[in-house]
Amino acid sequence: QKEVEQDPGPLSVPEGAIVSLNCTYSNSAFQYFMWYRQYSRKGPELLMYTYSSGNKEDGRFTAQVDKSSKYISLFIRDSQPSDSATYLCAMSDGAGGTSYGKLTFGQGTILTVHP
Amino acid sequence: DVKVTQSSRYLVKRTGEKVFLECVQDMDHENMFWYRQDPGLGLRLIYFSYDVKMKEKGDIPEGYSVSREKKERFSLILESASTNQTSMYLCASLVRGALGTEAFFGQGTRLTVV
Questions:
Q1: Which residue has the higher pLDDT, A96 or B73?
Q2: Three-state SS at A81
Q3: I need a labelling partner for A104 at 20 to 30 A (CA). Which of A31, A44, B12, B46 fits?
Q4: Best B29, B33, B43 residue to mutate vs chain A (most A CBs within 10 Å)
Q5: B103–A105: do the CB atoms touch at under 8 Å?
Q6: From the CA of A12, how many Å to the nearest CA of chain B?
C-alpha cells in the first residue's frame, strides 16, 4: 500500500463547477499537508499549505485536513479554465528528524475545466 | 523569488550513456531533492541532500547517484542510462520554517533514453 493515495481522475468539469480533490494517507506522523498545482510542462507550485487538522481558505480554494480519518481534500469553487492542471497532494512529518522535511506525494489528479 | 534552475528542459540519450542532470538554487537552502515523475505514479524521491557532500537515498535510488559539492548545486547522475529511466526529473530545494517546510521546484527535465 502506498503511503499516500490520491484519486487518480482524470476529472473533467464545466466552468463554474465545484471541484473536490482527495487524498488518504497511512503514516500518522504526517503533520504538514500541501497541495501543489502543476501546469503542463512546468514544475509543481505550492497552492495551499495546512498544518494539522482543520480548514484553510484562500480565495476560491479550501483545504481540509481530517487527521483522525487520515484524509485531506482540496475544494475549488467557481472553477475556471485556468484551473486546468495536475493537482498533487503532498505530506511531511515536519522539519526535524531524519526525514529532513522530505515530501511524500500522491499520484496526482489531472483536472480539466472546460468553458 | 526563489529560483530553482535545471540545466536542460529536454534530453535524449542512448542506452548505456552516463547522464548528468544539473540543478541550481539561489536561496541558500540546505535541503535539495531529486524526484522523478511518471504517469499514475506521481513524484517519487530518488535522492536528497541536507548539506554539502551529504546525501541520503530516497525511495528509488537504484541506477542513480548524486553529487553536492556546493550548497547551491545538486546533480543527479545516471550511471548507465536505461530505457526504464525515461521520465520527467524534478529538482526541488526546501526551506524549513516555523510552519514546516515548503519545496520549490525547477521546471523539470524530460529525459528520453533510446
A1: B73
A2: helix
A3: B12
A4: B43
A5: no
A6: 17
Q: How far apart are CA B46 and CA B66, in angstroms?
A: 9
> With pLDDT > 90 as the criterion, what percentage of chain B qualifies?
74
What single letter denotes the amino acid at residue A75?
F
Sign for the CA dihedral angle at A47, A104, B26, B75 comes to: negative
Given an 8 Å threshold on Cβ–Cβ distance, is A95 in contact with B4? Answer: no
Q: What size, in residues, is chain A?
A: 115
CA distances from B8 to A6, A46, B40 (A): 30, 22, 24
Q: Are A73 and A18 in contact (CB under 8 A)?
A: no
Strand segments (E) across A4-107: 4-6, 11-14, 19-25, 32-38, 45-51, 54-58, 61-66, 71-76, 85-92, 104-105
Is the alpha carbon torsion for A51, A53, A54, A59 positive or negative? Answer: positive
Are residues A76 and A88 in contact, defined by beta-carbon separation less than 8 angstroms? Answer: no
C-alpha cell of B84? 526504464
Q: Which residues of B touch A31 (CB under 8 A)?
A: 100
What backbone torsions phi and psi does residue B56 show, to the nearest 5 degrees?
-140, 145
pLDDT over 70, % of chain B? 93
Q: Which residue has the cell 522535511?
A: A101
Angle at B21 between CA B30 and CA B85, to 5 degrees: 115
